[in-house]
Design goal:
heterodimer; A: 251 residues; alpha+beta; two-stranded parallel ribbon; 6 helices; 9 strands; 37% helix; B: 214 residues; mainly alpha
Chain lengths: 251, 214
């Protein structure tokens, strides 16, 4: 028989031991994981403008193509500007803006809990003389967060490319948002209608039809993730509308 | 008298092979069905899932077997859970650091290995009362038996549901032009149940011993 004392000691020692093993594994592996995450963020930004790069080369390719990073506020003013490895305006490097925090802050401002305005990053990329404006977006899918980067042509209206990714959508269903057939659907779509009103791009269950200018096909079996993409685009891109109206002649 | 059994004696070999057929965890014991539904839409995640489960079950079985004399029966389930959970977290962390793309492919399902009843089942039924080496073999055998079914199911689901195998398009374009459509049901969880049902049917009709008498 095992005494109560034995059981308690056994359990405590086991838990402490396991905690030590797991936290040291986590600390040891953290730098590798963070490097992966950063390289992936760069890859996502570049991929939306059709610049492919592998994880090792991500940093170099990024420096080659990036013109500047901007951070704009919800009124459309440029608050930060980062160019040639240095901040020329403002305090935060736009690359380091966490969209998740910005969205939370945006909500807090809307409900009147906070007055600290969020900033929205824009990445200006030059590819063979063509200029692309890339904006990151973030939303919720079925199981967890989904996010993406949308590259616009110089009119900041026509989508040149889009990449999406997710934390844990169902493989084969919702996880299809990061496959090329889904992402390629967005190419050539526009986010403003003829009158210059912001309409975003809808993700339509059952098919958007061939001539849809503001809609793409949803994923069969991945309805909630598809709706997540739709909501993410609508609410995410909306934050850039004032900037676009103010700075880019869109009419 | 030689008491030492050789590493791959007939008895030990049976530990590896019976879970593939007569004692298959999915088709005979009907365990681990939930993950068999979830990760079998495509072949690649099913394959990586198989490898991960083999690693967790083999190592876990061995650890439990080494500890078996020290574990108080009253807290054995907790101890087993702690071992599974720590192994799964370790696997997840290592995948994230070194094979980032694979870990993204599997996403939540690595975490869900914790809830795979086959693992708890083997810890409880085998590792708690056997030596480490047979336990290791038993773990490899059962995880492989699970994985084989996963891979068969994933093969048919991907072929019929998406017209591809391992991500490569197999169904030619002219079939679609003639009006062939991928079977949407195969992508959804019921598709997996149907395929597993057919596998069980085939297996029982070939092996009469498995048929229960009424």
């Amino acid at each position: 028989m095992f005494s109560n004392k034995y059981i308690f000691t056994y359990a405590s020692v086991m838990v402490i031991l396991v905690a030590a093993i797991l936290s040291s594994a986590s600390m040891l592996l953290k730098p590798y994981q963070e490097a992966n995450v950063k390289a992936e963020k760069i890859q996502g930004i570049l991929a939306s403008a059709n610049v492919t790069t592998d994880r090792e080369q991500a940093q170099n390719t990024y420096e080659k193509h990036i013109v500047e990073e901007l951070a704009v506020d919800s009124a459309g003013n440029v608050v930060s500007r980062y160019r040639n490895d240095s901040l020329v305006e403002g305090q935060v490097r736009p690359f380091n803006i966490d969209i998740k925090e910005a969205l939370l802050r945006n909500q807090a401002v809307k409900s009147g809990e906070s007055s600290e305005l969020p900033l929205w990053p824009i990445f200006v990329v030059d590819k063979d003389g063509e200029r692309f404006y890339i904006v990151p977006v973030r939303g919720v899918g079925l199981w967890g967060p989904i996010w993406g980067n949308i590259a616009f042509e110089s009119d900041f209206n026509t989508i040149a490319g889009a990449t999406f990714d997710h934390k844990g959508e169902t493989p084969g269903l919702g996880a299809e948002i990061n496959t090329s057939w889904f992402e390629d659907e967005f190419k050539g779509k526009t986010i403003f209608d003829q009158q210059g009103k912001f309409v975003s791009v809808n993700v339509v269950k059952g098919g958007a039809g061939d001539n849809a200018q503001h809609a793409v096909d949803a994923i069969s079996g991945g309805t909630i993730t598809s709706n997540g993409v739709r909501d993410m685009l609508l609410s995410g891109l909306d934050n850039y509308v004032p900037y676009i109206k103010k700075n880019i002649n869109n009419e | 008298m030689n008491n030492r059994e050789s590493l791959f004696s007939a008895k030990n070999r049976r530990l590896l092979t019976t879970p593939l057929g007569k004692e298959n965890p999915i088709t005979i014991q009907v365990l681990g069905i939930c993950s068999a539904l979830a990760v079998t839409v495509k072949l690649e995640p099913a394959f990586v899932m198989t490898i991960s489960v083999i690693a967790v079950l083999a190592v876990g079985n061995m650890i439990i077997s080494l500890l078996r004399r020290t574990i108080a029966p009253r807290i054995r389930i907790i101890v087993q859970l702690v071992v599974i959970a720590s192994l799964v977290i370790l696997v997840d962390q290592v995948l994230k650091a070194f094979v980032y793309d694979v870990s993204k492919q599997l996403s939540v399902f690595v975490g869900l290995i914790i809830t795979n009843c086959i693992i708890m089942g083997r810890f409880e039924a085998f590792a708690m009362s056997n030596k480490p080496w047979p336990s290791f073999l038993d773990g490899v055998g059962n995880a492989t038996g699970y994985g084989i079914i996963l891979i068969i199911v994933a093969f048919f689901r991907e072929l019929l549901g998406s017209g591809s195998v391992w991500g490569y398009q197999i169904a030619p374009q002219f079939l679609y032009d003639w009006g062939y459509k991928d079977n949407g049901l195969m992508i959804l969880p019921p598709g997996a149940l149907i395929v597993i049902g057919i596998i069980i049917w085939v297996q029982r009709s070939r092996d009469k011993e498995l048929i229960e008498e009424n």
